[in-house]
Amino acid sequence: MSGADREANTPLAKPVDRRKALEMLAGGLAAASQLASTCSPLSSATPEERERRLLEWEERLKGNFRLMTDEEKAETIERLERLAKLRRGVDVSISATEAQPGVLFGYAFNISKCLGYRECVAACIRENNQDRKSNMQYIRIFEMEQGEIDFLRADATFEHEVPADGHFYIGTQCFQCANPPCVEVCPVQATWQEPDGIVVIDYDWCIGCRYCMAACPYWARRFNWSEPEVPAEEINPVQHYLGNRLRKKGVVEKCTFCIQRTRAGRLPACVEACPTGARVFGNLLDPDSEIRWVLEHKRVFRLKEELGTEPRFWYFMD
Amino acid sequence: MRSAHWLAFLLVFAGCRFGEGARAQGVREHSVPADARARTYLEAVPAELAQGISGPGGRYFEVQLRTPQIQGFPCSSCHGDRGAGSEVLVRSGHGSIDLIHPRGAARDCRTCHLPRDPAMLKLLTGETVTLDHAYRLCAQCHFAEAEAWAGGGHGKRVATWEGRRVVLNCTGCHNPHNPAFPKRLPRPGPSIPRRSR
Amino acid sequence: MKHLQAFLLSALDSATSGGTRYHLWMGGLTAVMLAGGYAYSVQLREGLAVTGMTDHVSWGLYISNFTFLVGLAAAAMMLVLPAYVLQDVDFGKAVLLAEGVAVAALVMCLAFVIVDLGNPLAAWHLLPGVGLLNWPRSLLGWDVIVLNGYLTLNLAIPFYILYSHFKGHSPERRKYLPWMYVAVMWAASIHLVTAFLFAGLPARPFWHTSLLGPRFLASAFTAGPAFTILLLWFIRTHTDYEVSDATFSKLGMITTVAAQINLVMLGSEIFTEFYFPTRHTLSAHYLFFGLEGHNRLVWWIRVAVALNLGATTLLTIHRFRRNQRWLIAACFTLFVAIWMEKGMGLVIPGFVPSPLGEIVEYFPTWVEYLVTAGIWAMGFFVLTVLIKVALPIELGRLRTPYLRHASSSLRREYGY
User: Fold this and answer.
1) Hey, are the CB atoms on C47 and A226 less than 8 Å from each other?
2) Which residue of A has its CA nearest to B7?
3) CA distance C47 to C273
4) For residue C165, pLDDT beyond 80
5) Binning pLDDT at 50, 70 and 90, where does residue B84 land?
């Protein structure tokens, strides 16, 4: 377990000067915003409201996750957990588990096996706290006519009984490219590739310019056009800072191979939910892993190889 | 869905078995921090529910047991000591079995089950194995699938991608009497915004 | 310091005094800006969901206008080059105005980027040093730097010249000329950088072409001088600031040549897209002919191309170009045509179909229209104020009250 994780539950350590200054600034801004929005003195707000405003401003002034010290990570996690309680009334636990050395995640999708049930989609939505209002989905299952792999003619909106005769199914999601164009274009380095290959987003650092969405050749990124809504009782409280923690409006998000699960040794929710075993996940650096078996024993292909993005997501057939 | 049920069962079982605090954690998904839960998952496949086998190339892995999944197993829980002849199988309470596999002349209970003891499976070599070794029966025809299953290209691994490799038995996903997945309505699809006006 | 104070005070005075029509104009602009501000407040509260943008078409009217206006800003330097570097006096009159246009266009550019942000409170993350600018990897990082640098240059150089005149001095060439050279380079770079912002995306074949940069330049050097002609014409007819026919003639020539080059490139692009259509040309197909019944942009681009062709033809014929009326009409038409083509006509088709083949069209909402109108109003507001301050100084009416050597330099031109 990483240092950040261990510290996540310890009380704040002695503040340093810079942080103290930031806290004071946040306090001032919180008070100012209170005054501006309600035109009433700060004292009339409930203590919870005041605490929430203070925390929100401290959150707005924090730095990029990658530049945070372990202590700062622990602090922001504590704030975020508290904010989830104050805003939504739920107890969440946010981890900052780092990548394991010697692990590089890879994914394979068996297009002979997928039958279009979309169990993966449903599991993904619940696991990753995706916005229910806009029906956000990271995974797209395309129904293709036999004889071609043509996304233009494929249909992802099928609602009839599956598998349909004469058709096959092919799923897409973020491919965690080894050479990700989305990371390249981000003007503020709010998205990057972790050592285990997962391309992550610091939701609090994202400015919402959506350049990454234009740059992704696989249409893997989603934007929170409005404040995301997840019913409190459906919130998955087991969260990761770079994964399924509650997002806010105006930022980009995407599949992270369920970083909150996979960093803890578990399989991604889509793999676990697939009733046909069409999804294979594992460590590319482990010669005994399932993903390595697939790469060595099956003929595989990737989408848009000509772009040089090197997806870590392969398709294969029986 | 079946695998989800199996997992739930597994977790309940793990909870009962290990007692010490794992019970509530394993079953109620949302009550413990990630790392604790992951440990629960890793430990959630008790040795009693899986059997170690050696696949091709000497790769060791574990297979989920079949018998704990079967309601009313062993047969004696209903049938007492009398045993049950295959002839009366369909008429006497096993009417839900819709045998469509294998196709053709071999479609007969006795193709796979020992007539006098249906809880035992009969291999082509004459060897008999328990239901927990269903994969050996299936592999007789589906050798390519079996090889992929042992390697990781077919079937499903349980819960984790690292540590002990426990995979579902063939019967963990397939109904042995009707192994094809049925047609059904999919879960809700995407809402593609106004495609035109 | 007293000069500076006097300068700012008289600038404010000049900008706030004028006839009824002037006040109506400024009042109207303010009203539109307020409406835009209201629409933006709705967008801030509800999120970008109130716009017509979607995960499929994730940039819309805002970035379209941004793209066009970068070109307008860049084109200002097209006039600076001959005026200052080649010492061509005819352009001298146009230059300060063109730089005013550049400043106004840049203010609009930055505003369009800001309103397009989903999380504008985090915009400080873009500040080098304070935030974490992804430079030199991200082309948007480049854009932040070059646009702000260009804005600084276009504020500083005219300020120096005007302020010198205000004080009754001649601006010293050695003080501003080096910066002029920098600014000229910079002008080409801002538009190229903005083109590369699109052209650097292999995910979007519609933009991923090496012709995009040159086409951006050609269209910018059409729209920029065309707008300057319109502006000069307005100033000549409404003020006593003299603009010679030669200035119009030369600007008209620049506009014409740029428009012709632009058309050649358009033709080249259309040939490549349609001679042997592939999956990569579907966006162009969507734009010009529609795709599976989705044809929202077809009339738009066809009108744009028709206007472009018509206006360029007019300008190409000497008789029409030399006639002020036709020149004005053609320049206005070109300006609109390029706004249509280099805005929505460029940005939207890049997203249709999506990289996974889904076709979703883009329909701007009232919020976007109002915010866009508000930003344009702000641009015109800024431009009007700049002109309102610059003209009296250039006409010698506005001078520091502490003037000592008035007689020697009052009537002097820029000093070349």
Assistant:
1) yes
2) A272
3) 37
4) yes
5) low
Return the structure tokens found at C338: 């390029």
CB A276 within 8 A of CB A114: yes
What angle do helix axes C89-116 and C212-238 make, rounded to 10 degrees?
A: 120
Cα–Cα distance measured from residue B37 to residue B112, given in angstroms and rounded to the nearest whole number: 40
In C339-377, which positions are buried (b, 16+ CB within 10 angstroms) versus exposed (e)?
A: bbbbbbbbbbbbbbbbbbbbbbbbbbbebbebbbebbbb
Sheet holding B128-130, edge to edge: B113-114, B117-122, B128-130
Our CA dihedral for C406, C407, C413, C414, rounded to 10 degrees, sits at -50
Boundaries of domain holding C311:
2-409
Q: What's the gap in Å between the CA of B195 and the closest CA on chain C?
A: 5
Per the structure, the complete domain to which residue B13 belongs is given by 1-44
Q: What is the DSSP letter of C84?
A: I
Least confident of A209-213, A241-245, C13-17, C80-84: C80-84
Beta-carbon separation of C363 and B195 below 8 A: no
ipTM: 0.92
Enter the tokens of residue A280: 């294979």
Asked whether C296 and C362 are in contact (CB, 8 A), the reply is: yes
Query: For the residues C104-133, what does the mean pLDDT come to?
Result: 94
Q: For residue C46, give the amino acid letter.
A: E
Task: Tell whether omega for the bond before A268 is within 30 degrees of 0, i.e. cis.
Answer: no
- Structural domain includes residue B169: yes
Closest CA in chain A for residue C123: A207
CATH number at residue C387: 1.20.1630.10
Integer Cα distance of A286 and A261 in angstroms: 18
> Could you say which architecture CATH assigns to the domain A99-318?
2-Layer Sandwich (3.30)
Give residue B82's pLDDT. Answer: 62
Dmax of chain B from CA atoms?
72
Whether pLDDT at C51 is above 80: yes
Which of A115, A141, A291 lies closest to B181 in CB terms? A115
From the CB of residue C146, how many other CB atoms can be counted at a distance below 10 Å? Answer: 20
What is the predicted pLDDT for the residue at B13?
Answer: 37
Residue with tokens 């062709």: C309
**β-bridge mates for residue A316, sequence order:** A110, A300
A93 DSSP β-pair partners: A238
In a domain, C416, yes or no: no
Pairing state between β B50-54 and B60-64: antiparallel
- Mean pLDDT lowest for which of A153-162, C1-10, C336-345? C1-10
Mean pLDDT of chain A: 90
Chain A closest-CA separation from residue B122 CA (Å): 27
The residue of chain C with its CA nearest to that of A135 is C55
CA distance B191 to chain C (A): 11
- Write the DSSP string, B98-141: ----S-GGG-SHHHHEETTEEEEEE-TTS-EEEGGGHHHHHHTT
C294, C296, C358 ranked by CB distance to B192: nearest:
C358
Give the C-alpha distances (Å, rounded to integers) separating B51 from B15, B73, B133, B135, B150.
Answer: 20, 18, 9, 12, 13
Q: Are residues B11 and B34 in the same domain?
A: yes
Residue whose token pair is 């000549």 = C236
What domain count does chain C have? 1
Residues of chain A positioned with their CB less than 8 A from the CB of C132: 64, 67, 188-189, 205
- Residue A173 touches partner B, C-beta closer than 8 Å: no
Select from A206, A219, A305, A306 the residue whose CB has the most chain C CBs within 10 Å, as the one to mutate to test that interface: A219
Asked if pLDDT for residue A23 goes beyond 80, the answer is: no
Quick check: A10 pLDDT over 50?
A: no
C-beta of residue A192 within 8 angstroms of C-beta of residue A208: no
The DSSP string of C168-209 is TPPPPHHHHHHHHHHHHHHHHHHHHHHHHHHHT-TT-TTT--
